[in-house]
Write a structure and sequence with these properties.
- The complex is a heterodimer of chains A (137) and B (115).
- With 137 residues, chain A is α+β, with helices and mostly antiparallel strands.
- Chain A is built from two helices and five strands; from the N terminus they run αβββββα.
- Chain A has one domain.
- In chain A, α1 runs antiparallel to α2.
- The radius of gyration of chain A is 22 Å and the shape is elongated.
- With 115 residues, chain B is mostly helical.
- Chain B has one domain.
- A two-stranded antiparallel ribbon of chain B has the order 1-2.
- In chain B, α1 runs antiparallel to α3.
- Chain B is elongated and about 65 Å long.
- The chains are: A alpha+beta (137), B mainly alpha (115).
- At the A-B interface, α1, β2 and α2 of A face α1, β2 and α3 of B.
């Protein structure tokens, strides 16, 4: 690989971007109401794994982080009493997703900072590679 | 390599490039559960090679796992440490590039016979 650091930091960008996507999906569905006969909207959780064994990163082999799957939150959600809702059952209950906005905001900040950190690495790597290209000029 | 100076600079550049790659890997995995940060060492090996009068190119670059305490999800990457390491690595890299360019400049002068 010609510029392996870009590849590694790029994989980090992809991971944190996916995380932000998952958070925005969760936030958008914060008030998604379902009838009690159906499952609630389930929060999306990104499952991350390291690429390679850590030794390979040194030699420019496979390195970085990747999304290996999505886990889903509680399908039971929270039952709420809202008889005026057209989706309410005979007891006047509807199902709300079990998503905490504060927790989602925290996750969004972590993902955003992670994205910025990887971007900073790309910036530095670019400088170093440019310097290397100037050898012998 | 042309001589021992160039050989030492070349080996150090190799080690620093490896360190930069490993730091990039650490930052990419700053939130990966169970990830243990990697640390690149080459200075001691290089120093020993120079002291023994060996060819510096034969000095080895190796990665070991960081022994920093892990947090709740088994990860021990500390972003501030990584950024400090990245800055140090970058500046040292630039310094060595300047050194090797100076070396080549001297050679060029010698080849040109001062013309």
């Amino acid at each position: 690989m010609l510029f392996p650091t870009f590849q590694t930091a790029g994989s980090g960008l992809g991971l944190f971007r996916t995380w932000m996507d998952a958070v925005s999906d969760n936030m958008a569905n914060l008030d998604t109401v379902r009838p009690t006969s159906e499952a609630a909207f389930q929060a999306r959780f990104v499952v991350a794994n390291a690429i390679g064994n850590g030794q390979e990163a040194m030699t420019g082999g496979p390195a970085g982080a990747q999304v290996t799957g999505i886990s889903f939150g509680d399908a039971n959600g929270r039952l709420m009493h809202d008889p005026s809702n057209p989706l309410a059952d005979a007891d006047g209950m509807v199902r709300f997703p079990d998503i905490d906005m504060g927790e989602q905001m925290t996750q969004l900040m972590i993902a955003q900072r992670g994205y910025q950190a990887n971007l900073a690495v790309i910036d530095r790597a670019k400088d170093a590679y440019q310097q290397a290209l100037s050898i012998g000029r | 390599m042309i001589d021992s100076t160039a050989s030492v600079i070349y080996s150090a550049l190799n080690g620093l490039a490896a360190r930069q790659r490993v730091i990039a890997n650490n930052v990419a995995n700053v939130e990966t559960p169970g990830f243990i940060a990697g640390r690149v060492t080459f200075e001691d090996s290089l120093r020993t090679a120079i002291a023994n009068g060996d060819d510096a190119v034969t000095s080895s670059v190796s990665t070991r796992s960081s022994t920093d305490p892990v947090n709740m999800n088994g990860n021990n990457v500390s972003l501030d440490n990584e950024v400090v390491g990245l800055t140090q690595t970058d500046l040292a890299y630039q310094l060595l590039i300047q050194a090797i360019n100076q070396k080549f400049g001297l050679l060029r002068t010698a080849i040109g016979g001062g013309a």
